[in-house]
Amino acid sequence: MRRTRLLRLPGVLAVLAALALARGALAVDPTEMPTPELEQRYLALTHELRCMQCQNETLADSPVELAADLRHEIRDMLLAGKSDAEVRAFMVARYGDFILFRPRFTARTAWLWLAPGVLLLVGALVLGRVLRQRAALLPQDLTPVDEDTPN
Amino acid sequence: MLPELGHFALILALLLAALQAFFGIAGPALGRERWIAAVTPAVAGQFVMVATAVGCLAAAFIGDDFSVRYVASNSNSALPLFYRVTALWGAHEGSLLLWILLLAGWTVAVAVGAARLPRAFAARVLGVLGVVSFGFLLFTLATSNPFLRLDPPAGDGADLNPILQDPALAVHPPILYTGYVGFAVAFAFACAAMLEGRLDQEWARWTRPWTTTAWAFLTCGIALGSFWAYYELGWGGFWFWDPVENASFMPWLVGTALIHSLAVTDKRGLFKSWTLLLAILAFSLSMLGTFLVRSGVLVSVHSFAADPARGIFILAFLVLMIGGALALYAWRAPLLKSTAGFEFGARESFLLFNNLLLVIAAATVFAGTLAPLISDALKLGTLSVGVPYFNPTFMLTMLPLMALLPLGIHAGWKRGRLSDSTRVLLLTLAGAVIFALTLCFGIFAHGAVLTPVGAALGAWVILASLVDPLDRWRRGLSLSRAVLGMTVAHIGIGLAVIALTSVESFTFERDVALGSGASTSAAGYEFRFDGVAPIEGPNYDGVGATITVTRGGAPVAVLKPQKRQYWVQHQLTTVTAIHMSRGNNLLVALGDDLGAGRWSIRIQIRPLVTLIWLAALIMAIGGAVAASDRRYRTARAPAAAPLPAAAGEQPT
Lengths: 151, 652
Prior knowledge:
The complex is a heterodimer of chains A (about 150) and B (about 650). With about 150 residues, chain A is an all-alpha fold. Chain A has 2 domains: about 5-100, Helicase, Ruva Protein, domain 3 (Orthogonal Bundle); about 110-140. In chain A, about 50% of the residues lie in helices and about 0% in strands. In chain A, helix 2 runs antiparallel to helix 3 (about 65-80). Chain A is elongated, with a radius of gyration of 25 Å. The model of chain A is unreliable at about 1-25 (pLDDT under 50). Chain B has helices spanning about 1-30, 35, 40-60, 70-75, 80-85, 90-115, 120-145, 165-195, 200-230, 245-270, 270-295, 300-305, 310-330, 345-375, 385-410, 420-445, 450-475, 480-505, 610-625, 630-635; strands at about 510-515, 520, 525-535, 540-550, 555-560, 560-565, 570-575, 575-580, 585-595, 600-605. In chain B, strand 6 and strand 7 form a beta hairpin. Mean pLDDT of chain B is about 90; it is low at about 300-305 and about 635-650. At the A-B interface, helix 1, helix 2 and helix 5 of A face helix 6, helix 8, helix 9, helix 10 and helix 11 of B.
């Protein structure tokens, strides 16, 4: 099994050695679909859904059998005219939120999605205060700036 | 016998680290000149002992001593010599030993470089480094000893994991760790300044070259890891926002903020307490990266319990180190008020923006990395966080950062004089927009909304960075290495933005099933599958395919991807075949045998992907050039150093 993506640092090997199974090293299912638009959607979906049996791999890359089954499932659903949202809903109903690499925006994940924006907002407020304080200090600050060494 | 010698040397190193820590911190505090004098010998002795221990372990690997458990689990008699040496850091215990060796090496370098610094201050820096080293040595000896014996010895070793049998990954850990450990030096300088109660512009000047050097190594280390993932893992990706990747990226982001904040402290004596906090944070994240990845916490909560002794030790050590540093900070920070002022448009403002955005980026990565753990621990259900979360949230901070960078490098210190540079800024921006439009609509003829934005920002950063040095060169003025290094590093970041934008926008990817002699076309190239043949290497066998690539009938390349089966661990690995053509990387990976001579094959065409790693290398070179500036080397120690701990700061 290609359980390798996590192993950027060799030390984790010790921990993961037990998980090592000799399986195919790379999942390659033909991605061709009747139309380029369907192929794009197939690629996008298999890249944002998680292989349930691997450490941290997308369905698109995972070599395990369950992932192959799910890829076929996705292909069939898309060919049957299902929307992306319907495919995702089907997968979540079957395997739970763990399968989504893009966490849904719910009450328990709201903090995660809002964190960057809130931090930026708070940071901007603090920054504004600091800048005002420093600008006010400017008239009394008579220290020269050494222009010969610009940084 | 040798393993026991190594074990003994490691115990001696632990004792010497304790002496180094005690004399280095207590000596200046109590004003004992002879204690201070004992610090440097302890540093030298510790390095010799650690090097001896590493040498003994390396000898066990080279000599195939399978009575040593660590060797037996990570090497094999069929393993080529090069990998037998690098297998030393192929797993947990040995990589800790490598960490300790690099720390000992940095400490010796600091001891030599600190000869110019006040004796008491230098002793404190070395003392703090002794504390760090003591903790790591104790952890290694108590929970992760690589010298333990097996009785009876193993007949042969379990082999190094095949995916680690690769030149790039063999050198990746030492380089990455050199960066991690380098932030320990910045941390030690920060703690020493707080212990002394004195933090002035001179302190920042002492600290800058060390921090920049560490940052350059970390940059290289991350790029090497990404490069390895691209060609070795088979899926052709270069970054997946995996916890292990994030663990090395967070210290990099904070370290980048730190080198900019140090510039302000150096030039204007401002942001002192903020600089200290960043130094503490950068090293804390480095330790977190080292430890948490190793303990498996980031992979799964459950593996934490697999070895509770390690987990508890790590937690206690982190709490003591970070908590201790923060307590010191809380005690000393009130002394660090500065009265310097600056205008809104001054360079100080832009460097504040830089720090804010980089730290928020790091915080976002932190939140995304730990969210699955937090969700699981709070029984909120399992959760995955991946590329679709990290990419947009990361851009939220990086786009403004790139937009402000060209303004920042043209703003003057103290008084904003951006209006003087309006013409230059507008001209470079116009050039960047033309470049972006050419790239998006002329060369590739499609792309997403953000494609021209990313390309324009990257080009603007490069053009604006070039203006000042070119102008100085034209006027025959001298160019300091600090300025030159900054320019080179900023060009690197601009190139990285362009490369990432085009890879993200224009990658072509398709998996196909082909029989022998069949072909498929992809993005103007024709890929013909010429069948597979058996291959054999020193410790593996497998199959190799031949794929002929043509473009408009003209031959482009013959690609030979492989699937290898390593004999000892029976593991299949994919070896991709890559060819550069017109700035595109054509990547082919061999999938599964579908029967009847048909194989599945992955074809990926990534434009400018090589530029990502090249850009990282350019950034690192910029860092190295800046760190070698004459100004840092000629720093003179003041005649009398405050001793003992003189509270209060120098007026700025």
